[in-house]
Structure formats: C-alpha cells, structure tokens
Amino acid sequence: MIVCRDLTKRYVKTRMAGQEEDHTDDGASRPAPKGRIFSTKKGEIERIRFAAVDHINFTVNDGEIVGILGPNGAGKTTLLRMMSGLLEPDEGSVEVILKDQKADNASEKNSETAKNSESAKNSESAKNSESAKNSELSKASDGHLAGPMELKKNIGFLSNNTRLYERFSARELLRMLGGLYDQPEDVTEKRIEQIFDRLQMREFSDDRISSLSTGQKQRVSISRCFIHDPSVFIFDEPTLGLDILSARVIIEMMLAEKAAGKTVLYSTHYMEEAQKLCDRIIMLDHGKMIENAPVKDILEKTGTDNLREAFFALTEGRADA
Known about the structure:
The protein is an alpha/beta fold and about 325 residues long. The protein is built from eleven helices and twelve strands. The protein is globular. Mean pLDDT is about 80; it is low at about 25-30, about 100-115 and about 125-145.
C-alpha cells in the first residue's frame, strides 16, 4: 500500500511579459497568472511560479491497479517521481505500508485496547522490541516507510525515459542491481531466472542491450523494477511505443503482480488499455486531481461508455480553473 498526503511540487517558468493568456493542450485559453518582470536585452520577461502538482491526496491498496490519466503537462510524471522518492516534494509526504507491518499495527492496536494491565504491559514491551527491530528500515511512526531510501527499497519504478547501460547484457545489469540492493547472490540469480521467464527475455538475456529492439529494451527496463521484489510498482507509460506482443507481456506482468497482492500504479495515454486494466482511475488536469474512482463509477457519472469521452466530459469548463 502506498499513501500520498498533500503532495505538491512547484516550478518557475518564464515568458515574454505582456502575454495575456495561457493555452491548454486542447487549444483552449485561460487568463495567465502574473509574475515578476525582469528586463533583458531581448525585452521584458516574466517569471511565474506554478504548481505542477497541487496538494494531491490518495491511497493505492494492496492487490490494486490504479491508472493515472491526464493530458501532457497535467503533472503525471512529476507526481510519480515524487512517489518513487526520486523527486523531493515541496509539501506533503509519501508512505509505503508493508503487509506484515499492517498486521503488526493491527495487533498493537488490539493490545492497547485490552483492559488487562499485564496484557497492556506485554503489548508495550512487544511494541518497543518491534520498533527497535525496524529502526534501520524507517524513521516514521507506526511501521510506515517514509524516508527516500526506505521508499526506494520497497518500490519498483519505471520512468518513460529510463536509460540503460547499453554495453551490458540484461543478465549483467540485473546482477549489478542485485548487488546494489545487497541481495545474496543466490537470491539474485533465482530472481533473474524468474524474471527472464515471466518477461520472455531468455532469447536475448545475454546479448548487449545496445543490439536489442525497442520492445526488448523496454522489457529490460521493466526487469530492473522486479529484481529486489518490491511491494509497490510505479510505471510511467510502460507500454508507450511498444508493439502489441511486447505490450501484452508487460500488461500480463502487471496483472500477475496484482494477483500476488502487490500495489501497482501506472500512467498512460492509452485510455482503452487503462479501462480494461485498472481497478480505479485518478485523473489529473493542470496539477489537480479531478477524479478518483472506479472506472464504472466514472462512466456512470459522465454518462459515457469509455474513458476517453469521460475525460473530455470532466475537463470541459476547466479552462479557467
């Protein structure tokens, strides 16, 4: 499970002073925000501070696939990078809650409500012992993982512009990453074999990455996310530009992780794919969350039969938002 609370990221953009309106992705316009004006040799420019992600809150549960949808510039990639620990938010927090930790928390809560004083004393002792055991994993309370390093150990993140070491083979790359995660060699080798089978990579597992096709390279990129067996997966447009066979392999992998009780969050521009794959959809527009609901509920709310038309219906009239 992963929890986002009030996630916010602000940036500064520049433009020529005097521009009266901004344009959205669909060609609509809205009044331009005002910023500080500076004089340069080319004329006056205006610097404007804006929120790429604006106070977003949601939870993705175990055994759930949630899709992040929105036009270019909506804040999808910024949001996912903050959730993965690669980008520090200006405000808000991200927490990963592991299955065993949730069970421990529930047990502790039941112990605390017990009326027997001896039981309460034992519960407090157990809590202190568990806290000491997890002290190296997390600085947050209640067994939640919140620090950047703790998040990265429990998240598999795929960016849509992931770079690979092209002189390596897929096998060499995964062995190196297993070492970075301080995994025993036998564990890493076992996971490599499992990944090659699940992602259908055996035929090119020992070829240089530089010689691989686009679809094969994408499978190598995704394999990186599985080598440390994380509890949460975050994919930023994982099927972008892939042929139908490569895309199917990746989709089947996501469904398998869902069935295993893992948390899966991914962004895409392929509305039809998201409609079939996702349990829930989060829609973003200009950095704000405009919808967070199951696909069926969104279609009923908008009176449409597909996510593409539903998105158009939800964003109509938001040019001035």
